[in-house]
Amino acid sequence: MKILMVCLGNICRSPLAEGILREKVKDLNVETDSAGTSAYHVDEAPDTRSIQIGRKHNINISDLRGRQFVVEDFDHFDLIYVMDQNNYHKVILMARNEEDKSKVRYILNEIEPKSNAEVPDPYYGGDNGFENVYKMLDAATDKIVEKIKNGQL
Ligand code: 4NP
């Protein structure tokens, strides 16, 4: 199973999602990665506020680096989890066929099915936004791991 997390900058939400999932699946045969729909922060480390919130919860994401989503990601990954509607539409626009499209899911639909709810972009907000994002991603990745273990993904 190969899972890609996607947001806009690949420095706040998706590296945190990747890091939390990476920790939870370390004894399972799951590959994790993350990417941004923009090229704003390519090769950059995650935002210090995401690193801090991860550290607070014993998740180290300081090794991760930003990269942009590419069409080949549809070939490599089984599932592509997006954080919000903007990411969803950008990724869907790059899909070449229905199979590509079927891999793309809103991450919060794992905990609120069919809601298409968004993980809010914390970039311009205060530190509280990062804790809020952490809680959402922790809950969603719990569900993802549960589904992997039950063979539902
Ligand atoms: P992310 O947050 O998509 O969660 O990584 C953002 C990071 C940077 C920008 C926007 C969102 N930016 O406009 O530079």
From TrEMBL:
Active-site residues (renumbered): C7, R13, D121
GO molecular-function term, one example from the UniProt record: protein tyrosine phosphatase activity
Keywords tagged on the record: Hydrolase, Protein phosphatase
Class in the EC hierarchy, top level: hydrolase
Pfam families registered for this protein in UniProt: LMWPc
Gene3D superfamilies in UniProt: 3.40.50.2300
SMART domains according to UniProt: LMWPc
EC number(s) recorded for this UniProt protein: 3.1.3.48
Domain Phosphotyrosine protein phosphatase I: 1-147
Bilayer-spanning residue ranges: none
Keyword Zinc: no
Superkingdom: Bacteria
PANTHER family: LOW MOLECULAR WEIGHT PHOSPHOTYROSINE PROTEIN PHOSPHATASE (PTHR11717:SF7), LOW MOLECULAR WEIGHT PROTEIN TYROSINE PHOSPHATASE (PTHR11717)
Family: Belongs to the low molecular weight phosphotyrosine protein phosphatase family.
Name used for this protein in its record: protein-tyrosine-phosphatase
